[in-house]
Amino acid sequence: METIAKVRRLYHLDKETVSHISRKMNLSRATVRKYLDHVGDEPKYPQRKSRPRPQLGAFEAILQQWLETDAHLPRKQKRTARRLFEGLQKAGYQGAYDSIQRWVKAWKANVRPGLHQAFVPLSFRPGEAYQFDWSSETVILDGVAMAIKVAHFRLTYSRMSFVRAYPRETQEMVFAAHQEAFLAFEGVPERGIYDNPKTIVDVVYHRSHKGQERDFNRRFLALMNHYLIRPTACTVAAGWEKGQVENQVGNIREWFLPRFRALKHWIS
């Protein structure tokens, strides 16, 4: 789905020819034309058979406990992945050492990221990008307190905002919010900046040597493909990467919501 979206953006937005896209992406011209004619919501794939749980599964809790304990010890007293592997073998683990080594490396990268982080000021061109986020609020409907979800959009150059409330944070609400926002903006930016919710991102992979990669949800990619948007997901737990809409959430909660908590028509 990402390949289809990239082909369509290159053709419709960057005005590249079919031949150039074919060479650039190592695809046949027939495949490029097929992708350009693609109108379906998402490709259909056969259901994969469930895989058996790795042998490490039953020992993950033990391994995590050992690592958390070692985190408080002096460096020379901490167990290496090899020593942890040997300890698990004594506890009954029959899997390979490589599985332990990869798991330990991923755990350390996730729990103890690099100590030195750099922050680069963000700047945007007109029409380049928007930021999206959800917030949880409470309103009064017919005298009853009700929890709602509020979709927030923020154009990164003009700072124009769009806010719409929904009863839930489902994927249907995500799609409806985008449609309403682009109608209000009277246009569609080139790029969208998002968190990593399940309605948008299926999986985030933590790989210390390649940074963080993720698999976007296929239906969400179909939405991006329809509007020719390049989706960008923030680093996990790095809200400053979409700081404009994060601030907007607080401002709307402080300035706007107190005056409209009892308005029924505000809820979609």
Describe the 3D structure.
The protein has 3 domains: 2-36; 55-111; 129-266, Ribonuclease H-like superfamily/Ribonuclease H (Nucleotidyltransferase, domain 5), CATH 3.30.420. The mean pLDDT is 82. The chain has helices at 2-12, 18-25, 29-36, 60-70, 81-90, 97-111, 171-185, 218-227, 243-260; strands spanning 129-141, 144-155, 161-166, 191-194, 201-207, 211-216, 230-233. A 5-stranded mixed β-sheet has the order 3-2-1-4-7, sandwiched between helices. A two-stranded antiparallel sheet has the order 5-6. 19% of the residues are buried. Helices cover 40% and strands 19% of the residues.
Short recap of the structure:
The chain is 40% helix and 19% strand.
